[in-house]
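#lab-general

N.A. 3:47 PM
ok so I finally got the sequence cleaned up, no stray characters, all 537 residues accounted for. can someone with queue access submit it? mine expired

B.Y. 3:52 PM
send it over

N.A. 3:53 PM
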Amino acid sequence: MTSSLLPRRRKRAAVAVLAAIAAAVPVAGCGDSSGSSGGGGNAGADPAAFLPASAPVYVELQVQPSGDLADNAKSVAGKVLRTSDPAGTVVGWLDDAIGDRGASYERDIAPWLGQRAGLALMGLSARRDDPDIVLAVASKDDDAAQKFVDARVKDGKTETYRDVKYQYKASDDLAAAVVNHVVLVGTDKAFKSAVDAQSGAKLADAGAFKSARDAVGTDGLGFLYADPLKFFNLFAGVASGSLSSGNAQGLRVVQQLLAGSGLQSVAASLNVAKDAVQLDAAAVGLKAGAARAASGGDGPGAAAAVPAGSWLSLGIGDVGGAVNGALRSGAASGVTGGMDPATLLDGLKSQLGIDVQKDLLSWMGDAALFVRGTTKSSLSGALVVHSKDPAASRAAVPKIRKLLKGLGVSAGAVSSSGGAVGFSVREPSVPGGAIDVAAKDDKFVVAIGSGAARDALAGGSPLSGTEPYKTAAGLLGDTKPSLFLDTPQVVTLLSSFAGNDAKWAKAKPTLDTFGPAAAGLTKTDNAIHLKAAVSVP
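B.Y. 4:20 PM
back already:
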């Protein structure tokens, strides 16, 4: 075991351990966010004000929450960990992580730990398991923080960079110092970039970062910021030397899509209610076309209308419009080589013998995918597409069968019954042994499993009338769910597959803690928001 700031075998792992401690501390350190107990400090310092504006990824945590947030974190953690003392449990984990020299959380970290900690990713290596990262943790007692740093990098050397004295251990590439009431810990390169930021461009002042914070707020337990294009370029720069020409071309296509989408940042805020964990994520700066493709139609309505008893429902708004929008965005960004969507679809027509725009996309409206069943034998589900033109969707059934036959797929004859027209494709690997394709009235269905096609076409009791759906939907506030997951049913299904597996038996009690979950999209002037929540009853 090494004798660095925090013990781990791998080079640079000490920083990852301290980050893990920061992630766990909200339970262990709830409540006391008072000012310095001596030696100066700033418990409420903004970590992003001490990190470089060039950081492509940043994660922030409230390591000393207070008030309702602290109470809620303890409540949920107690349920998940199945203990009346979640703080004691987490402190025990922390002491195991830092205890190689007799250190403890209560004695060596709690006295100086401020309210917030932020971790920035600054670079990747060719191995990609050795990143350049730097952690900034607010200090409420700089003397106590300095003692901790000195003790934990005892075998390091005192170095100076831009008049900042810091402890550095070359064997772990680990640098640490207390700078302006913040503990900075990181790899040497990332640490120095944070020191540079004190007199240069700070992350907290960057326009994209401010927009990300404004989109989701920072009042929750955690906050995530990412600049997708910066991160992709970082990854591509490391990976490009080992990729084939085909994969390198794929990277360039993704880069063009990101650049053409207008996406400035991705942000997420994690919050904890008394009986739920909630997430608010946002894609900021998307161009109008991409935003419309992500939020058009009525996906929530489609998700709510699937048969009651489904444990999964995923609604997609205006499928035809979304596909056409994606094609237009691809053409605008140059991904299609300047070829317009109509030309692309005409090319598919000549190859497949079906007019994709006229025979399929033109009538496709809102859609939903549902799955039900808690054993392998009872599994079933379907994709249900609302048809804007019932005659066209009925006419598409034999055309799809003809296409499949041309591709060598053995499809049964088209038949009509009870106003529905459809056919089946034998497929032993799926529940029920067949894939059913059918259309009736304003519904087009692709289904597997016993009774799924029938129930999808017939309607009946909708998912929206069930208690699990109502519970999950209520967690999202004004946002209507496009995704519903009945977690208890999923756990029952997994149990039927796991049998007596020991690892599953150990994990199941924790999974049993969670109730139904839901997620939904909303659109603001400059962002697409994804709100998600899972109940912890």
